[in-house]
Amino acid sequence: MAINDLYSKRKKLAEHGNQPEVYQYTNLPVEFRRQVILIWSDAIGSYSAGQFNYEPLVSRLWRKIHDSFARELGLFNLESELRNPFDQCQSFLLNEDTPVENLLDLIEFTFRHIDKDIRELLQHPRYSVELNVSQHPDSAIYELNHRFREHAIGYQYNNGQIIRVDSGLIHAEVVVPALSLLSSEHFKGAEEEFRSAHAHYRNKKHKEAIVDALKAFESAMKIICEECEWSYPKNPNAPKNPTAKDLIKLVLENKLVPEYLQSHLSGLRSVLEAGVPTVRNKTSGHG
Hints:
The protein has 14 helices and two strands; from the N terminus they run αααααααββααααααα. By secondary structure, the chain is mostly helical. The chain has a two-stranded antiparallel ribbon with strand order 1-2.
């Protein structure tokens, strides 16, 4: 569905000097939550009881979404009242007592289904007719991210995850390209470790997040070395497996960063070596 330009939106933007507001992370306004529900209705569809003991496809999808998500939270139902699965998801999202992290969990969970399940079902003529959605998954994801920005909420949905956005420029020029690279088949192992680190971070398990972040960092460098045929010890029983510092040294010596830029980026090596590896060793490693 098209996103409309309204006078009130233009006025609000003009009041901020035509610059986006500072992102906030602790509140999802009720208007935003309602807009998410409207996207659900267009991109998945609304629950229908069906007839003659037949449950429509869209209703089965909502039951799958509700039951799987409730199970992850350790609940039998998202709401105490016995409503249909779609109504329960709506009520959970609109409930003022639902923690923000669980609201984001549900949004992420439903949009994964839109991004994967609905997208796959739309490839089949029979299922696409039965679903009868009015908003394609790409449009739904685009609108969700637009609504996040519109309400100055510092999150975006990208490649199956809700990620925090601290700077619009950094997000567009660094985070999104990095995630796109990680999603390629070559970096599958590093991507899994990165996702695990991000999940731990979202759940405030900071030590576990740092451990998995270092694993992803090291895995990414090992993959680069293998693709470029730069040798490093691979035998798990070898006297010395490469540390992050060893791998950083190897990729820089092999001019992953061009030699003519290395003096300009003289601090890069120090940042890489003293960043995640040092934090992990000081706070998370060795128990």
